[in-house]
Amino acid sequence: MPSFDPALPVTKTTDLTKKLRSRDAGVTLLSLLPIAEDLLLNDTTTTTTTSASSITPSDETCTTTNIHFPRKEEWLLEWTVQRLREDTDSSPEAPYTNSRLSCRFWRFLLVLLQRMDGVTSARGLRKHGFLQLVEKTLGDCTAVKAGEEWVVAAGSGSKRDVEGDVSMGGDDVTDSSVTESGSGSPRDGGDGGRSRKRRRMMGLEQEGGKESLGCLLGEMAKVVKFLQDTAAGKVGLDTKVSGSIIPVFRGTPEVGGQILGGYLHNLLRVTGDKEEAVNGIEAMIGVWRGCVYGNGDLKKTSTAFSKTCLLPVFEVLATDISRSENSDTLEKLVAEYIFTPALLAASSTVPKSKFGVSTKHSASQAINEALQTELKTLLEPLKGIPKSAETRDVGLGLNNLLRIAIGKSSQFSGSETVEAILEVLLSVILDVRIRGGDAATSSSDSLFPERDAEIIASMLNLINNAGLSISDDILRNIVTLAANLPFNRGEAPEVRWTIIELALTLDFDTFVMSQSTSLLGRLVSALSDSWVAQAASRDALLRVVTLLLNGFLRARDLDGFLSFWLNELNDLYTIGGEKLALSSIWTSENVVASVSNVIERGYSAPRIEKLTTSYLDSLIQLGGSGGLAFAKMFLLDTLLRGVRREETEERLKNGGTLLKIFDMATEIETPASAVVIRQLIFRVVQLDSTLIQAEKYGKVLSGSLELLKEEVNLPMKKSSKKWTSTSPTKFAELLFCLEVLLHHMDTTKVVNSEVGTVINTILQNGVAYIQSKAAADAEENWNGEIFVGLNWAKFAVVVLFAITKKWLSVLAQIETASPSVYFDSFVTLVHISIRSAATTGLSARKVWYDMLNSTIIYELPILRDQCLNAIISSKAVPHDNTWYNLYLETIAKFPLEAIRMDLREQTKDSIFILNFTTSLNAPDSEKLALARRERSLLARLMDTARTNSGPISDPKKLVEWFGKLDNTIEDDSRQGKATIATAKKILHRAMVDVEQQHNSAYLVKLAKELYSTISKTKQVSSTWTLALCFLRECWGCTVEEVKEESINLRSKVIAKATKWLEKSTEAKLTAQLLPIYAEAVFLDQGAGNAELALQAQKRCAKLLEQWLPVWAKSRESATLEEQAHFQDILVGLVGLRCQCPQSVGTIEPTIAFVIFALEYSPELASHKASVLDHFTRMASRLPSKAFSKAITSISESCFPITKEVGQDYFLLLQILLKGTKKEPNAGEATAESNANNIHDTIAKIYSSICLALPKSTTQETFLTLLDCLGTILKDLPWAIIQFSIDETLSALTICASPSGPTFTPSASASTASTETPADGIYIPITRILLAILLGHRVRLKGRYHLLITLLQSLLRPLFTTPSHLLKKSDSQIHPPWLHSPLALSSASSRAYTRLLTTLCDPPASTVSSKKNTPTSTMLLTSHTNLARKEVARYIPYVMMEFIHLQLNRNGGRMVMEKGVREALTQGVYAMFEVMKAEEGTLKIVSAGLDAQGRVLFKRMWEEFGKFGVEK
Q1: Which DSSP letter does residue 623 get?
Q2: Is the pTM of this model over 0.70?
Q3: I need a surface site. Which of 450, 684, 1319, 1400 has the fewest CB within 10 A?
């Protein structure tokens, strides 16, 4: 209850209510709202006016008072609803202005309802008609047009949003209304300001809120949703409230429809953020359902929904709003109130015959007609869709309606339902009829609208995707209406191939039925005409032809396809001769290949022979000339091309058919097409190789060669220097002649050098053509069509493509007999191809890459060498980055063993020289990629190269080559690694034979060059890296000259680095110098290096003192680059400190420094890895006392484990354990004390790890500790005692139990894509137990009770309880780190299976306690049998636990996933195997189980007998 202040005067309630009920013309309802808000919050102002009849803000004086107003919320609710319903505030300037359109009023109503009793509020809402208020408000919103003024605050002007949204009140309504009501200025500190703050706290105002249509819809929906939640019991616990609120939403279907439809209609007008308004759809759907609840008149409700809601729902489903979660509900409403009534009404209409029985046809027809009648009535509102609506929106909306209808009509059988719905939708929205004779009477003069065609295509696609079908009559009419097929040949309208594709997919009979013969003819003619006119649609045309072919094939009527194909080729030849026929779609390679592939699927061998003979007889009668002869020759060639089975070949050969065709083809003097007749002859020879020696075929070969020589040698007239015009048909003829000649050489192995000359001439013609001024802009990319758009450049690509794919072996024969410039021309065309702007089709560059990617080229030595030599010796200047990239990639693709030694040296030298001379005009990123590739390739070539030849053997050149690394765009490790690898190979080869004079002289000269270069440098450069490489490889050389120069170079490096380190204040320079200085100083580990080591140790301390203050400030002030340099300095100092000699007194400060470096920046993984690497190398060099001190110090810091102990301590402990020396020989007296000391230390550490393992707080620490245990168990077995094994088993048992560690596994722990994060915890635990079984099994004697307990604990996590079966009373059996019900995968099950198999079937080496003692085979077998017998006594308890988990644990609701169970099968069989051998063990299991358990155990035993016993 609001507080009551006795210090303030009390005012009469009647004065306040009289003011709120005022209906004076000068007072708007919106101006009274602040008073009502203050009254609700008990922050009320009384006003003293000068005139009782004139209540205006200017005449009032305000005084803050108390007021006693019982049941004020109830009064305010009735006042609000009543006044909002009756409000007619308007003016001529703003005719639609009223308070119902104010977001603030609806917000006030929501707060009011939230503060009231539900029963009381329901009474007020019913009394004053809440539903009618909502309906009126939505009607007012609809009435306001986007271009009209809309004002909701007194005196404020309206504004309209730029996108067309209606803006209700341009300024902040709250400010103006509060000030006018006399509540005080919101900016002062008085009561007005406090009142406004309270209103905002209560939700009556929003910060910065603007009035808008979206805001109004959202606030209105919130009020409705609150009432609905109250009625549903989601708000409050009083059941009486629910019964009181429900009648508020009782109304007629018309009212519910007006509210839902009006809301959706206005929602579509909202621009900007409409999330809240969209969320309100659910509330308005609830209003509709409340209004129709209990109404049994389905026709009335469906009519109301159709008239008020269908069009808005249609428009909403056609927009992005349809992706909201309310779209499914809207679709269900359409199905329930539009399609369900129509389908029910149609299905109840069944005509009766005169005998009282209806026929199937009459029933289907009656249902169809009734459905159309009902649907047309219900879908009539959709005619209101404007014709200017976007095609996408209308199509999407129609598709949604059709999809809804299909889903609903699935309850009714027959395709007539879908057809009727489709026809009604199209007729209502597009005014298109697809039944009857309207479609058939369409003429070519009337083009169907593109917009309507797209919509029809989308609906057909939906029907196709739904797996439905419609009649061919409907489809035929759709194609006639919308496909835009021409009626006459030669017409080339924009045919809509998408509709034709869909029609063929849905029903092939659309085009091949007797009624549609003319339609098929129109389609075939359109395909022929569009192949040239609509070149961009060729893919669609080929898909249509493929659909036609497949349709005829499914109908087993391949004759029909060949028949219209034959007629079309005849017509094309008659119209345009051979040129038109060969350039049509019906002679394209794609169509011919598709038909030939199905010949033996559609025809048997006798049928192929009969059809071939028929075509042959016709050709003989026709004399081989004319259109029909051309068509039959082409089809005969296609038939022979489709012969693949040996049976068919033999039938055609033995029956003499092939010989007759050969004779006929070679005797025709004037064939209709020389191209086709040559193809036919070649096809016959391919099927019958005996004809290749025929004299007639020799004439064909000689004629083909003569034609090639004549054509390819005359591409350019010497007089005019212009290219002759060669037709595409002629190019196709030339290509086929070349293929005939190559095939002959491949078959007979007889080389014709003239063919090689012809090939080279073709390539040279292509180069000349594309380089000529007349064809400067010509592209050499080939699009794959033989008969379209070929020129000499594209023809060269065609020839290259054919040879590369099929005739490389023949080319090798030609080149062996007579070497040519084939690859030189090829490379030139590739270079031209790179410069070409064309990106589509097949180019010389793509052919080149295809050749390199195949393995054939590398198996032909002559082609392989010529190819490599051509690319190396190419005169193309590699200033083009693309060309240089091709150059490098070509060499990189060659296997090293496939490159001849001289070519390898030549290649290496060419790359090395190009690295100096190349200046690429390319972006920096491309330059960097090329530099990486060239240096990586050079490093690869150096694997087998000689070092005493070529430019790279010059030391000065090598130093300069390293120096180029300083000019790289960025610090690139890949390029640097490749360069260093090359240098190492050069130096290593020189050192292998360093005694040879030229090698030692090379090294001496290189050392002097490095000495000279370093002396001159003023900064750290790549030369320093080469110097370190030299020192690593050559230090300790026995040749005196090399040794002396190595010492001089090392001294120079140390002196230069020392000088710079003493003076340097630059972080980058110091970071670069530290690793160089450390490596150079400690290159010599002898006693003579003690002084340098001492200086290095002092310098490390001095540098640490210098840079430590800088590190402290770097986190806040330094840039990212500077911080990276600081990190490098820190890593360098760690490396320097770790390389210094360590003693008992210095090891602890060194460890502290390493810990500091690890904790300084833990997010930098590379720096952390470098620090750990330095520490690892130091640990391997530590003397025994220093090592013992180090591991003792680290272990004392790690244990006992606490949150303050970081992961870095455990990493160092892990490194030290892995670096622990093996146990010293017991006979060495000097080492015995050290051995005992380290033995006790390791044993103590092992015990501490076991105690700390269950207390691990992070996954990283847990895994590190497990790894430490594994290291000691495997590598330091001499440190293991019996107590260690006991501790390990106990610790692992706790870790696998509910008392285990509580961290959450991360995905990084998974080692394979099939493993889960929890597998990364479970599997390492099993590895520790496996290490015990394999290395310390003899210590398990007498400890099997601990082992079995651990196995039982590890078995439980493999079982899970499905989430829907979980209960609060279930006992917790899983460890805390196993969170997900499906946390373990089959990988964990396989790990557990390995434990069981190792335990039950132990290797012989693990069961003998006497090592290094020769034993007999029988003795080993006895040890194994003894171990198996001991296991058999305890393993039944694991089996009982396995059965118990399946049946009894948590009520038998625990399951094991299929993959987990399958992986565990071998482990179960291993337990059965060991129990089977020991009498009584099976009885132990049976005795420990109940009746249900024994049944399961018996079934498992039977499965083991079938599948698990070795036969």
Answers
A1: T
A2: no
A3: 450
